[in-house]
TrEMBL record:
Pfam families: DNA_primase_lrg, DNA_primase_lrg_N. The gene is priL. It comes from Halobaculum magnesiiphilum. Its cofactor is [4Fe-4S] cluster. One of its GO terms (cellular component) is primosome complex. Residues 239-352 form the DNA primase large subunit C-terminal domain. SUPFAM superfamilies: PriB N-terminal domain-like (SSF140914). GO terms for molecular function: 4 iron, 4 sulfur cluster binding; DNA-directed RNA polymerase activity; metal ion binding. Heterodimer of a small subunit (PriS) and a large subunit (PriL). CDD domains: PriL. Regulatory subunit of DNA primase, an RNA polymerase that catalyzes the synthesis of short RNA molecules used as primers for DNA polymerase during DNA replication. Stabilizes and modulates the activity of the small subunit, increasing the rate of DNA synthesis, and conferring RNA synthesis capability. The DNA polymerase activity may enable DNA primase to also catalyze primer extension after primer synthesis. May also play a role in DNA repair. The keyword 4Fe-4S applies. This is DNA primase large subunit PriL.
Amino acid sequence: MEPRHARYPFFASAREAVRASGVDLAALVADGDDAVDRGRERVERALTEGTVEPEDAGAWDTRDELLSYPIARILVSLLDSHAAVEKYAQAEAATAYRRFTEDLDRARDDGARREPARVDRDALLREFDLAGAVRIEDPKPGQVAGRWLWLDVGAYLSYVDPDWGDDWRLVNRELVDGEVRTEREELYRLLREAVEDRVAEGLPFEGVGEELADELETEISDLRDLLADRSVAADLDVVAPEYFPPCIAKLLGRAQGGDELDPHERFSLLAFLAGLNLDAEEAVALSGLDPELVADRFAYLRDDSGAQYPPPSCRTLGEYGICGNEDNHRSVAPHPLEYYSRKLREADEVVDWRERTDSDAGDAAA
């Protein structure tokens, strides 16, 4: 098991390293191995943060990191949710993209010097059978060497996504002798798509033994809270912070006061705001959180139909150390959105926070 295997666990060589090690994944789970904890974190961070980077990189060794990948795939399969597969694959691809662009940029800066954990361009292209499909363009005077390349049209069409926009449509590209002229950064984006396809391939898979599923019941239960039914949020489009559950109100107050929220706290607050159908700009205005961070998180929390991931249940918030059942509010409802919905129904008159903000702006202008 090599550092590069841990950094890129979806590589064929990494899978072979796991197979050759003879490690019994079921035994790891039964023994509560550290790789199982890292695998759970891998999936949780994929669903909540859009990354599979460890929160504390120093907590895990090469073995834990590599073995956490097949464990994570087992967990995603047991969730048996298309949304979970999609978000997990996207997060693995996003993390890989950050890593290999860093590696390739460093390789250009350092020249021939190589580091065992890092990947070079040739190895990355070989991994996805693209070595013979890419031809580096000879730079013209004044051009940066390696900026432009020619990619086999079949390989290009295999990974390009129609949703990327008109610039990616073949009719708008330079196409000569079956090759598409492509910028280096565009190739990186196509490679990110290749990673996502590979990670998603075969998920969810069948054949996870009943005994193994039972051993992972706690982990699966916690992860399912992140995929809970959002029907309670369907009609919630009023934002009245005074009716928020106490734990969410406390998080909001801390954010507004400039406190740094940990990942669980940040996810819980933003998922709640997304569940109220706020957009990222409104969430920034209300919470005071960093706009770039909010936009990034909302990209994973929301889709075209609304908030895909509601905030965790009160029980899970308690496990995170966020909810202490202040004012015995769990007796009102076991879920933050349900609590908020009931409080709104009980209120005599509710003024939306956005209307108050607009009114204050109008008064100031007058």
